[in-house]
Design brief:
By secondary structure, the protein is an alpha/beta fold. Helix content is 31%, strand content 26%. It contains 4 helices and 8 strands. A 5-stranded mixed β-barrel has the order 3-7-6-4-8. Helix 2 links the parallel strand 6 and strand 7. Helix 1 runs parallel beside helix 3. The longest helix has 24 residues. The chain is globular, with a radius of gyration of 15 Å.
Length: 185
């Protein structure tokens, strides 16, 4: 059995309530709700794989819209004891997920500001979201493989929050098609 995960109900709008071979988990938005919900699910059930679907902002101007596998996650809302941006005082600075894909920067705020994007790009990330790092870290603690698939919803620049509301349904349909392609269901 696989666990299909999304943070926001809008990201599941194109997904049927029952998909053969998958349980479904809606975590809530942000690192703490995501980590809590996934931890509970992994304590209560056994899964062969976690498949995360959802939206992300593109911060690399060369990154076109579409669907992307995530290779690694970093955090963009932390600083180490020495003040190093992107370093946590205890957690690893990067969580590797797959051999191919893009690096995503996770933080507990919706990035829609050009200045923030410029700082986050220095972490070698090409996308931003609010859950991937936490979900990947929890999955690794439990030894469960995780695949994170993100649809580009916006450019993480001024006005991105309004744009997300308009495009999340389209992204959900793209993600549902990708799940069919990857898993045949």
């Amino acid at each position: 059995m696989k666990l299909l995960v999304a943070a926001h109900a809008s990201e599941f709008v194109a997904f049927e309530a029952e998909i053969p071979g998958f349980d479904r988990l809606l975590t809530g938005v942000g690192k703490i709700p995501a980590a809590y919900a996934l931890t509970r699910a992994l304590c209560e059930g056994e899964y062969d794989e976690i498949v995360v679907v959802g939206t992300a902002g593109a911060i690399d101007p060369a990154l076109e819209g579409g669907i992307y596998d995530i290779a690694a996650a970093v955090q963009h809302d932390v600083k180490g004891l020495d003040g190093t941006f992107g370093e946590h005082v205890w957690l690893p600075s990067r969580v590797d997920i797959a051999s191919e894909g893009v690096v995503i920067a996770t933080g507990d705020h919706f990035v829609d500001d050009a200045e923030a994007v410029a700082l986050i790009r220095d972490l070698d990330a090409r996308m931003v979201d609010m859950e991937s790092y936490a979900l990947a870290w929890v999955a690794q603690q439990f030894g469960v493989p995780i695949r994170i698939v993100r649809a580009v919803s916006d450019r993480a620049q001024d006005g991105a929050t309004e744009l997300w509301d308009d495009v999340v349904e389209r992204c959900s349909h793209e993600l549902r098609a990708k799940l069919r392609e990857l898993y045949g269901v």
